[in-house]
Design goal:
Shape: elongated
Number of strands: 20
Number of domains: 2
Bound molecules: cytidine-5'-triphosphate
Oligomer: single chain
Structural class: alpha/beta
Number of helices: 16
CATH topology of the largest domain: Rossmann fold
């Protein structure tokens, strides 16, 4: 079995990408220098444009030094020394666009096709994918005009919206309108870079398990494993960005990843808690990805009080029970049409036969077998690699890549197993002309 991928070190999906950062007038603009600096450290080429209001909130000089390129503002537009209109030149240069923070005025200009600032004109001229992160006061965000404009944007192509979260705002209100944090902006850009903007999981629900479980021996000690949860977390975040509703059941996470707004998280500690949570969430899920590293054994009865070293040592050989196979349990209960992806950790050179036997035993639709003894795969690694087994005898090798990128490939394979979702139509169109799929289900006969 091939366990050594022999490929070059996986590169960051953002390295070498031309990223245009458009900053409009909200106080959250002060966070953008951190994002620009992180993008440069990750090897991206960055150019910044500030709206007139943003230029008063964040220093164009700081943005220019951090991006190593001039920061543009409205004064640069229509410069007689430039051979091409600046908004067109910038729009055509960009491979990816980050629009953050998006203010109410820039949203209005964009949606209604008014290009009277450099930021708005670039948006109108741009054909690259745009990650959009609004930020504003709670009442402004809820106002009918802004809400309607935001709704219109949801149906445009090439957009990846990161809706604002709830929290303390600069106006001292606590409520919706807080821009997605810089880590989430970077995650959204990485997702755009490795997958794009298509929301092919809209209308679907994914149930994901992630991280280790922790089986207590006594109140002070437990049996666990080195899983950080990053692979499952990456699957959950990637699916959310692709439009899915996502339930994430996770053990203690050690992955340094900010969770996206909208993920439904169900933290657990033990395999038994994970089992209960998964079984409760299984009905109605379109697909399940079982990335958790579930413990294999647990104490039948953990000690109620802390054991002395001697008592612990004496008890180590007895009192264990095998943890039931949660994945096999989910497969046994699955409703028609639900697709299930399992994982298999393996090590050593001759494990393919064992992996195939495990695939047959578990009964899932897909199994991703990753070599945990390779430097660019497995526990606590930022990257992963492995074989994807599906129907038939074949297996597809995934070269080492960041876990988010592997997650997108796995989601595509899982999505291929699902019935197509009827195309979602904009709400205005549904209201004008409802089709049979848009009507509420008829009440059941008594
Ligand atoms: N798994 C599970 N319940 C368990 C153990 C594992 O649901 N009690 C799931 C994991 O989430 C993973 C798959 O089964 O999707 C394979 O896990 P792995 O640790 O590779 O295999 P095991 O079934 O534990 O078998 P073994 O350790 O003997 O190789």
């Amino acid at each position: 079995m091939r366990t050594d991928p022999g490929a070059a070190a996986p590169s960051d999906p953002l390295a070498g990408r031309r990223i245009l950062v458009l900053i409009s007038g909200s106080i959250a603009a002060v966070k953008l220098p951190l994002v620009v600096s992180a993008l440069i450290r990750r090897g991206a080429e960055v150019r910044c444009v500030v709206s007139p209001a943003a230029a008063r909130l964040v220093s164009p000089v700081a943005l220019a030094s951090l991006s190593r390129r001039p920061c543009h503002s409205d004064e640069d537009a229509w410069n007689p020394a430039s051979p091409r209109p600046l908004h067109v030149e910038l729009a055509e240069w960009a491979e990816l666009v980050l629009l953050a923070p998006l203010s109410a005025s820039t949203l209005g200009r964009w949606v209604h096709g008014i290009g009277d600032t450099l930021v708005a004109a670039v948006l109108l001229a741009c054909e690259a994918p745009v990650l959009v992160a609004p930020a504003m006061n709670t009442a402004m965000w809820a106002s009918p005009g802004v809400a309607a404009n935001w709704q219109i944007l949801q149906h445009w192509p090439r957009l990846l919206p990161l809706p604002p979260g709830s929290g303390l705002l600069a106006c001292d209100r606590i409520g919706d309108g807080r821009m997605a944090e810089p880590e989430r902006l970077l995650l959204g850009l990485e997702s755009l870079a490795c997958w794009g903007w298509h929301r092919d999981w809209l209308g679907r629900r994914l149930l994901v398990s992630a991280g280790p479980t922790r089986e207590p021996l006594d109140p002070a000690r437990c049996l666990t494993n080195p899983s950080t949860g990053l692979m499952g977390l990456s699957l959950a975040q990637a699916a959310l960005l692709r439009g899915a509703e996502v339930d994430l059941v996770h053990g203690p996470l050690a992955a340094p990843v900010a969770l996206l707004e909208g993920l439904r998280v169900h933290p657990i500690q033990t395999a038994s808690e994970m089992e209960q949570s998964l079984l409760a969430l299984q009905p109605g899920a379109s697909a399940i990805a079982m990335a958790a590293a579930v413990a294999d054994h647990r104490r039948a009865t953990p000690a109620a009080t802390k054991l002395s070293k001697q008592a612990l040592e004496a008890s180590l050989g007895q009192g264990w029970e095998t943890v039931p196979d949660l994945l096999a349990g989910l497969v046994a209960r699955r409703p028609p049409g639900q697709a299930i992806l399992g994982f298999a950790a393996y090590s050593g050179d001759h494990a393919m036969a064992e992996v195939r036997a495990k695939f047959a035993r578990k009964g899932c639709d897909l199994l991703f077998a990753n070599p945990i003894d390779q430097p660019q795969a497995g526990f606590a690694s930022a990257t992963n690699a492995g074989w994807l087994l599906g129907s038939g005898d074949g297996a597809t090798w995934f070269d080492p890549a960041p876990k988010l990128s592997i997650a997108h490939r796995l989601l595509s394979a899982l999505g291929d197993r699902l019935e197509p979702v009827p195309a979602l139509r904009p709400p205005e169109e549904v209201a004008r002309n409802p089709g049979p799929q848009d009507r509420p289900p008829a009440a059941a006969a008594p």
